[in-house]
Design the sequence.
């Protein structure tokens, strides 16, 4: 039997039928916007459930007592990280096994996470329904049977099964690029300035966002890195993942990230604008395909914490001399980011 309230569905499986467990595990398809979370049994860590959600999202926390991910031991920090990755990668449906073993506090955490992300939540309650807590007791519809459960898992969730950014437009080349450059060179620019050419990475209006800048100049091409090195940059915390990716594909110093705002990332996450001290050098960089989900998660984290677009998206990792980011950079010797992460002045 399944009991549903709003976007929260409770599947009551009193007999602990293996069918429901298998169906839930088979439903784990992150690429289709659905993940299955398996809570760690008997874990006393306050952030354990958020860590389980990060694990389901394919994120692994760095191990050890001096881990650079130690700040994710905080419930709020871990919950926000999981929410940002979920939003950025288009997760719309979360299935949680063994929900009857969760404490009331962790059930509240799940409901709060659902409110934050707008995702659909399905809980497998593998004991009699009389033990449902008050937060889950109210229902609006009843569903029973294996076929109904399979149909429930196949339903589209409340948010699209795609990342929170559209695909980038294909780059113009050859004659098309020349024509665009000519039109943009002839167009009056903000503040009375005009661009005479479309040189990659040239300076534009220092206070303009990435979208406005991209209409004036061509973004500098991204530095290529190996696929396995790119995969290593997808750390558990979305801000660190985004920051490290920018260092990797621009080879800019850490100080260049201090002034990067939400509006310095284009809507499709295809370009990012960095700012130097005094805005003496504010280049626009193309974002490679592998880095777009990482920067999308950084931006999602920024917006979930209700920051205005003028605030710095990397500001939280710049605190305490950016020690967490530096520690992660040190764990990736093949990318040689330690020197860049140590350069606070661009």
Sequence:
């Amino acid at each position: 039997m399944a009991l549903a309230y709003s976007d929260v569905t409770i599947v009551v499986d009193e007999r602990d039928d293996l069918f429901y467990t298998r169906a839930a595990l088979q439903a784990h398809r992150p690429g289709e916007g659905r993940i299955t979370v398996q809570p760690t049994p008997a874990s006393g860590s306050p952030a354990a459930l958020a860590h389980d959600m990060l694990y389901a999202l394919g994120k692994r926390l760095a191990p050890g007592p001096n881990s650079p991910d130690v700040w994710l031991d905080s419930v709020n920090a871990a919950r926000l990280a999981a929410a940002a990755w979920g939003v950025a990668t288009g997760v719309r449906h979360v299935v949680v096994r063994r929900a009857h073993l969760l404490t009331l506090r962790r059930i509240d955490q799940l409901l709060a996470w659902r409110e934050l992300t707008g995702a659909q939540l399905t809980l497998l309650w593998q004991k009699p329904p009389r033990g449902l807590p008050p937060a889950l007791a109210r229902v609006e519809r009843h569903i029973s049977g294996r076929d109904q459960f399979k149909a429930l898992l196949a339903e589209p969730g409340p948010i699209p099964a795609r990342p929170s950014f559209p695909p980038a437009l294909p780059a113009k080349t050859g004659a098309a690029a020349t024509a665009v450059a000519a039109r943009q060179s002839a167009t009056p620019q903000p503040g009375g300035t005009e661009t005479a050419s479309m040189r990659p990475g040239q300076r534009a209006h220092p206070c303009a966002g990435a979208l406005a800048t991209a209409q004036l100049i061509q973004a500098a091409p991204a530095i290529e890195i190996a696929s396995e090195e790119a995969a290593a940059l997808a750390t558990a915390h979305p801000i660190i993942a985004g920051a490290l990716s920018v260092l990797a594909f621009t080879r800019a110093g850490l100080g260049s990230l201090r002034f990067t705002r939400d509006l310095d990332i284009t809507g499709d996450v295809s370009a990012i604008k960095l700012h130097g001290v005094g805005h003496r050098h504010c280049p626009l960089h193309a974002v490679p395909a592998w880095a777009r989900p990482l920067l999308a998660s950084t931006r999602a984290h920024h917006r979930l914490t209700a920051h205005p677009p003028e605030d710095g998206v990397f500001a939280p990792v710049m605190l305490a001399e950016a020690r967490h980011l530096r520690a992660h950079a040190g764990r990736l010797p093949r990318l040689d980011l330690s020197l860049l992460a140590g350069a606070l002045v661009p």
Summary: Residues 75-88 form the longest helix (14 residues). The radius of gyration is 23 Å.
